[in-house]
Amino acid sequence: MKKSVIALVLVLAALVAVTLFAACDVTYTYYFEPNYDGAEQITVTVQLGEEITPPEVERAGYHLEGWYTDSECTIPYNPLGTVLNGQRFYAKWAALPTEIIAEFDGEVFVGDVIRKEDITVTVLYFDGTSATVTDFEANVDVTDSAGTKNVSVKYTEKGVTLTTTAVVVVKQPALSRITAEYVGEPVLVGGTFNVDDLVVTAYYENGHSTRVENFSYNSFSSDSAGAQVLEISYTESGVTKECSVTIMVVDESAVASGSLSIHFLELGNKYTGDSVYVKAGDTDILIDAGSRKDSASTIADYIDDYCTDGVLEYVIVTHAHQDHIAGFVGSSSDTGIFERYECENIIEFARTNATTQIYEDYCEARNAEIAAGANCYTALDCVNNTNGAQKVYDVSGDGSITMEILYQDFYEKDTSNENDYSVCVLITQGQNHYLFTGDLEGEGEESLVANNPDLPEVVLYKGGHHGSYTAAGEVLMAKIKPQYVCICTCAGTVEYTQNMQNTFPAQAFIDRVAPYTDKVYVTSLMHVKYNESTGRYTNDYVESMNGNIVFSCEDGVISLQCSNNDLKLKDTQWFKENRVCPEAWK
Question: What range does the record give for the signal peptide (predicted)?
Fold first, then answer.
C-alpha cells in the first residue's frame, strides 16, 4: 500500500514538472507593419511575460510618430495594455520638412520694428504637402538704413532645422516737416549763438522723428536787442522743408539773472485745484491754495522745504472758488495756510459773487491774518497804485525779478462768471516773462489782451482754468505765444463734466495751445470708471501724471523737472488714448 502511494506521488510530480517546463516555453508572435509601399512585415516573437520591443524602422523623408493597433493609425499602441497573440501593429509616419519659404508682406521704413506677423513662413514637406507656421525665429533688426535687406529666418520641426531669408525693402520715409528749437541762453548784443543749441527735428510721414544736424540757416544779426528770426532749411532725398526759430538778442543788463523757481503742486486728494509756489531769490510767493481744506498740509509740507523762515512775502488769491481758496482756510485737522504762515502781503480778487460757506470761512481766516499784521490789497488797488498797493513789485530786491498785477475789465465790471474775476499776474526776469491768469476765460482773456497792448510773449503760461475748453483762447495765445504750459489739474476728471472731450485738459484747449508749443505738462491723472447701469463715468482714483512740476530759471538757464516723470502731455498714455494729436504735434 505504501509503495503504491509513493509511486502515485512520483507520477504527479513528474506531470507537474512537465507542465511547468512546457509553460516556460510558451511564445507569443506579433506582426509589425511598416505601413508603406515596398516595406516588409516584421515579426517579433517574445516569451510569456517578456516586454514587447517594437522594431526600429526607417523611411526616407519621414519621421516615425509611433505604432498603432489599427491600420488607420487612430489607436496608439499601449505597452501597459492587453496585447493578444498574433496582434498586428501599424507604423504612423509624418513627412519631414525639406524647405521653408519666407515672404515679407508688410511695409517698413527706416527705424521701424519689423513685426513677425508680417512675415509669412511656409514649410514644404517630403510628401509634397505644405503648411504655414508661426513658431519660427527671425532676425528683424535690419531697419537701420534704407535698401533691400535679408531677414534671417530659422524653423525647427521633428529635429530638422531649416533656414532661409525673407527679402525686405526698407524704405526711407518721406520728409513731412521740420521744427527748430533754440535751447541756449539769450545772445548778447554783438555776440553769436552756438549752433549746437539749435535742435532741429525732422518728422516723417510714417510718424517717426529724429534730430538732424546737416541743416542750413540764414545769416544772424545781433547788432541790436530784440527777437531775431532764424530761417532753417533741411533737405533729405530731394525734399526740402523749412521752419523758423526765434532767438532773443539782449543787452547785457537785460539777461535774466538771479534764481527763480515756479512750482505747480499736486494737492493731496482727487479734486482739481490750483496752488503755485514761486521762489524768487529769498522771496516766497504763493498763488492760490486749492483744492480742499485738507490740501493745506500737503501744500505746507512741500513749501516748507523752500520757505524756511515761515514767511510768505506775497500771497495771491485769484478768485473765490473753493478749488483756489480752501487751503487758506484749513480745517480742524489741517491748519490753514493763513494760520501756518506769516503772510506779509495778500493780493486778492477785486470782485466776487460768492456766498458760499467756504468763502465766508476764507474771509474769516483772511481777516485774522490782517489783524495779525498782514497788508491786504485788491487787484484794483494794485493796478491803480492806491491804498498802499503797487502795480509792480520788486520781488527780488535788486530789480532783477518783478511781479506785475495786470489790469482787466472785470476788476471793476460785474459778471455772472466768477472765473473772469481772476487776478492776473506777470512775473518778469530779464527778458523772460511768466503769466498766471487763474481761471480767466474767454471775455476775461480778451479784456486782458485789450487792456495790455504791451503784453509780451511769455516763456511760461500757467494753463488757464485747469486746461478747460473755456480758457487759452486764440486771442490770448496769439498774443503771448507760450513756450511752456503747466497745468494744475487731474487729467480726465469727470468732476465737472461727462463730456470726455471737455475733461481737463480739454481737446479744444490743447488744439489752441499746440501751434505755439508742445511743452505742456500736467500735475495729476484721474482714473475713471464707467457705470453701465447709470450710463455715467465716476472718478475712481488719482495718481501723479508729471507730479509736482518745477520750472526754474537761474542766471538765464531754464530747466524743468517733475517729481514723477518729465513726459510732455503728448507723450503720455492718457493723451494717446483720450485725445486727438494736433497736426502741430505730429
Answer: 1-22
- Three-state SS letters, 421-464: HCCEEEEEECCEEEEECCCCCHHHHHHHHHHCCCCCCCCEEECH
Residue 225 pLDDT exceeds 80: no
Q: What is the mean pLDDT of residues 539-560?
A: 93
Q: Which residues pair with 178 in a beta bridge?
A: 202
pLDDT above 50 (res 535): yes
Could you tell me whether strands 160-171 and 108-109 are parallel, antiparallel, or unpaired per DSSP bridges?
A: parallel
Distance CA 422, CA 329 (A): 19
- 137-138 and 147-157 as β-strands: parallel, antiparallel, unpaired? antiparallel
* Residue of 396, 450, 386 whose CA lies nearest to 424: 450
> Which pLDDT value is given to residue 24?
47
C-alpha separations of 311 from 261, 267, 341 in Å: 17, 21, 6
Distance of CA 470 to the CA centre of its chain: 26
Rounded Cα gap, residues 417 and 422, in angstroms? 10
Task: With residue 217 as reference, give the H or E element that holds it.
Answer: strand 216-217
**Number of CB atoms found within 10 A of residue 203's CB:** 18
pLDDT at 237 (0 to 100): 87
User: Would you say residue 147 has pLDDT above 70?
Assistant: yes
- Asked whether residue 213 carries a pLDDT value surpassing 80, the answer given is yes
SS3 content of the chain, % helix, strand, coil (to 5): 20, 40, 40
Secondary structure class of 281 (helix, strand, coil): coil
Query: pLDDT digits over 392-417, tens only?
Result: 999 988 888 999 999 999 999 999 99
Name which of 272, 282, 285, 279 is nearest 322 in CA terms. Answer: 272
Element (H, E) at 368: helix 357-371
Tell me, what DSSP letter sits at residue 43? E
CA distance linking residue 435 with residue 480, whole number of Å: 9
- DSSP H or E segment with residue 340: helix 337-340
Three cell numbers written together for 499: 463730456
Residue with cell 500500500: 1
Residue 489 pLDDT more than 50?
Answer: yes
* Distance in angstroms (rounded) separating the CA atoms of residues 47 and 22: 12
CA distance linking residue 105 with residue 171, whole number of Å? 14
Helix extents (H) in 109-251? none
Please compute the mean of the pLDDT values over residues 347-359 and round it to a whole number. 98
User: CA 166 from chain center: how many Å?
Assistant: 34
